[in-house]
Amino acid sequence: MMRLTVNGDTLEHAGTPSIKALLDARGIPAEHVALAINGEVAPRSTWPERTLVENDRIEILSLAGGG
Amino acid sequence: MNAHAAESSSDELVLGPYRFRSRLILGTGKFANTETMTAAVAASGAELVTVALRRFNPERPDDDLAAPLAALPGLTLMPNTSGALNASEALKAARLSRDLCGSRLIKLELHPDPVHLLPDAIETFEAARLLVRDGFFVMPYIPADPVLAKRLEEIGCVSVMPLGAPIGTGGGLATAGMLALILRDARVPVIVDAGLRAPSEAAAALEMGCDAVLVNSAVAVADDPAGMARAFALAVEAGRRAFRAGLMATRGTGEGTSPLTAFLDA
Q1: Which residues have a Cβ under 8 Å from the Cβ of B192 and sit 6 or more positions away?
Q2: Interatomic CA distance for residues B46 and B53, integer angstroms
Q3: B62 close contact with A: CB closer than 8 A
Q4: Residue B37 has pLDDT above 90, yes or no
């Protein structure tokens, strides 16, 4: 178990400490989101080798309507 | 006459490496639902639409616009930096958007004032500098200030987007006098970004030499958004054609169009 903050909510993540596992566990389509971790942009190209650690703050963003 | 418009012979809207035939840019916010928005985009003929970023909401996955916009052919997405309050936040928002959309076009908007949503010129200039250096094709939403517009052009912005009136007000081309000064010297496309309410205002902007308009609220909150999108498309085309055809000069005295010979006395 690992404590993470995802979009402002604290949660316990049980799977492997990968971004893909986190997205899959929450039913989030990876191709439709961008991520910031601990305030820094985490480009998609870095996701495969990135390991999440306890207390990481993750922002998951998607496209919305806007002018 | 806007020097940029005069130089363009193919009459495409050129934004950095991007070329568009349509001079109507449509915003995707405020629509009642996704179907209404996509119908309006289709009716508008827009090839460039703006989008925003927000936290993914697992309870409302249908709010995610990536798939519905991808289903519309030939559309380029231009993310905005809405929500950013300063230059560093705008840079972060832009990088996140680039990762998501693959688009290097960014509509830079920094309006920390929640009442009038007026752009912060100082933070916008600083953010534009950072974004240009980071490889973005920057389109800043700005006050209709000719000096600022020129400064942003000089540091490498691919267009400037002065407001006609504050976002969402429907105030029309309240800044027309200053827009004319921006147009006189601009060498990048000048796009009226905010405040337009009626298609006639979009036509007027194009007639005076603006290169394009960005419309959102006026279409999104119309009784028939697709119908209004089409009306704006026609107005933008009419205005552009009129500008290229060359408007007559105004005169202080009357000049007849019919012969004034007094033949009735003959």
Answers
A1: B161, B162, B163, B164, B173, B179, B202, B205, B210, B212, B213, B214
A2: 20
A3: no
A4: yes
What residues in A contact B53, CB-CB < 8 Å?
A: 34, 61-64, 66
What is the C-alpha separation between B121 and B119, in angstroms, rounded? 6
Mean pLDDT of chain B: 94
Active site residues of B: 107
Beta-sheet strands, E only, within chain B: 13-15, 18-20, 24-27, 48-55, 76-79, 105-108, 137-142, 161-162, 191-192, 212-215
Provide φ and ψ at A41, rounded to 5°.
-65, 130
> Would you call B58 and A66 a contact, using CB atoms and an 8 Å cutoff?
no
Nearest to B1 by CA among B248, B210, B149, B209: B209
Interchain CB contact of B142 with A (< 8 Å): no
- Please list the rounded mean pLDDT of every run of 10 residues in chain A (67 residues): 94 91 91 95 94 96 94
Residue B20: pLDDT band (50, 70, 90) is: very high
For residue A35, the chain B residue with the least C-alpha distance is B96
Cα separation, B42 vs B59, whole angstroms? 28
Could you tell me which of B99, B44, B98, B100 has the C-alpha nearest to residue B72?
B44
d(CA B202, CA B228): 12
Sign of CA dihedral B213, B201, B181, B4: positive
Q: Does residue B266 carry a pLDDT above 80?
A: no
Residue B186 to residue B2: CA distance in whole angstroms: 6
Cα angle B57, B62, B66 (rounded to 5 degrees) comes to 90
What's B109-138 look like in SS3?
CCCCCCCCCCCCHHHHHHHHHHHHHCCCEE
Predicted confidence at residue B44, as pLDDT, reads 98
Contacts of residue A8, defined as CB under 8 A and 6 or more positions apart, other chains included, come to B55
User: What count of other Cβ atoms lies within 10 Å of the Cβ of residue B140?
Assistant: 29
Cα→Cα distances A19→A50, A59, B100, Å? 7, 12, 15
